[in-house]
């Protein structure tokens, strides 16, 4: 029986999770029925006739705000992240999204996706590639910066990768979230090992991180380490195949699924709480939580499994196009059209596939009295 690492001083840059106690912490010991954590939604920028559909953009944001207000869930809008086509947006359009959002929603918190610009021909990592988007996003108040990984950043050895994150932090003036991009979107990506996570979690600029992987429960590892060591760092689940896990653990979600299934996820956040929690909006009058939440978990999980299904390249990146079809079905945007430069597209039958995907969650929503999800 081998001894597992439980103290951060014993970690090395190459220690794998499987050598730590946090890789074997059961979810049951982390369950939290008292915390209603925030829902960060990777907000879609819809298009019509190859141009941004600003009316649809605003309408979808207001719809999600309405869902959050109904269930008392804090909503944070993730702008220019994967759902917002960050890799296709010009700097000018990136800036316009933020400018329009702040003008129309002056008090609403946002998270801005930040990635490297112009690094395609670089042979070594250059932190200054992050400056253009940082400068644009940090010109606005009440925002957080999500530092997304990039190929050359991801290729660095653990210590050099830590130093790179710290170098980027020198240019950060707002709270920051470190984003461990999952291999299901880009093949070169890799999540953090325990030493790197601990280093980033203790940096004063990084207040949280996003993690989602399909093959290993890294979110549980992060949650276990941060809780055990009382780290000042909030793990955000970005795994759209594991939304119930974050709800059960009372931890934030940072997901594209928050756009397509917003009322269902907001409802589940509230249903999971005990009646004794002041923030609970709809109490059971038993002192307990609403066990109907388990059926709701099943409903939106089956829904998102189809929205985020893997394509022939084993990539989930076309979920942006599926999300547009869902919002179109819900009457929130005028067209399911994607960004004109987006290459991650679904097939011509996607409208029908998303209509079928909506049947089960709509039925459950009706049964549970969840509003704002269509007839």
UniProtKB/TrEMBL annotation:
Gene3D superfamilies assigned to the protein according to its UniProt record, in alphabetical order: Aldolase class I
UniProt xrefs under InterPro entries: Aldolase_TIM
UniProt keyword list: Lyase
A single GO molecular function term of this UniProt record: lyase activity
Protein name, UniProt field: Dihydrodipicolinate synthase/N-acetylneuraminate lyase
Organism: Prosthecobacter dejongeii
């Amino acid at each position: 029986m081998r001894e597992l690492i439980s103290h951060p001083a014993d970690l090395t840059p190459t220690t794998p999770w499987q050598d730590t106690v946090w890789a074997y912490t059961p979810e049951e010991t982390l369950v939290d029925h008292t915390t209603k954590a925030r829902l960060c939604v990777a907000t879609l920028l819809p298009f019509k006739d190859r141009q941004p559909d600003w009316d649809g953009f605003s309408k979808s944001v207001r719809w999600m705000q309405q869902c959050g207000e109904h269930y008392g869930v804090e909503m944070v809008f993730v702008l220019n992240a994967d759902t917002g086509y960050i890799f296709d947006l010009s700097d000018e359009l990136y800036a316009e999204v933020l400018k329009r959002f702040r003008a129309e929603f002056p008090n609403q918190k946002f998270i801005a996706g930040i990635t490297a610009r112009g690094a395609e021909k670089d042979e070594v990592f250059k932190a200054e590639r992050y400056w253009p988007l940082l400068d644009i996003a940090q010109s606005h108040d009440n925002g957080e910066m999500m530092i997304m990984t990039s190929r050359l950043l991801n290729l660095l050895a653990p210590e050099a990768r830590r130093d790179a994150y710290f170098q980027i932090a020198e240019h950060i003036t707002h709270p920051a979230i470190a984003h461990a991009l999952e291999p299901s979107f880009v093949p070169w990506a890799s999540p953090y090992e325990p030493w790197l996570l601990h280093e980033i979690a203790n940096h004063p600029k990084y207040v949280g991180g996003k993690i989602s992987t399909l093959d290993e429960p890294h979110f549980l590892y992060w949650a276990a380490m941060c809780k055990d060591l009382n780290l000042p760092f909030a793990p955000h689940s970005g795994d759209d195949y594991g939304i119930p896990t974050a709800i059960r653990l009372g931890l934030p979600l940072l997901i594209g699924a928050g756009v397509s299934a917003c009322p269902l996820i907001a409802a589940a956040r509230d249903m999971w709480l005990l009646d004794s929690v002041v923030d609970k909006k709809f109490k059971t009058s038993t002192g307990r939580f609403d066990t109907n939440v388990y059926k709701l978990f099943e409903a939106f999980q089956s829904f998102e499994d189809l929205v985020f299904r893997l394509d022939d390249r084993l990539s989930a990146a076309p979920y942006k196009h599926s999300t547009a079809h869902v919002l179109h079905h819900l009457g929130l945007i005028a067209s399911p059209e994607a960004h004109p430069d987006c290459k991650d597209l679904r097939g011509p039958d996607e409208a029908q596939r998303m209509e079928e995907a909506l049947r089960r969650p709509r039925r459950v929503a009706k049964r549970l009295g969840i509003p704002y999800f269509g007839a």
